[in-house]
Amino acid sequence: MSLPNLTDIEQLKNLGVQRFSYGNAMSDCIIAEIEKLTKNILNTSNTSTLYNHNTIETVFK
Predict the structure, then answer these.
(1) Torsion of CA 35, 37, 38, 40, to 10 degrees
(2) Which of 11, 19, 49, 60 is deepest in the core (most CB within 10 A)?
(3) Is residue 58 in a domain?
(4) pLDDT by residue (tens digit) across 26-38?
């Protein structure tokens, strides 16, 4: 399982780990970013930070 000090999948593979899970770490990270953006919008009354990101590469069909 992914933990703050266990993040290198290749290193874990070399140690014999065959399965790796990041559990809810991805959703926690996304929620933290949403909270950060929301606080910024509330503090500045400006939504420009919503557009300060790289182009989204994934296209869902």
Answers:
(1) 120
(2) 49
(3) no
(4) 999 999 999 999 9
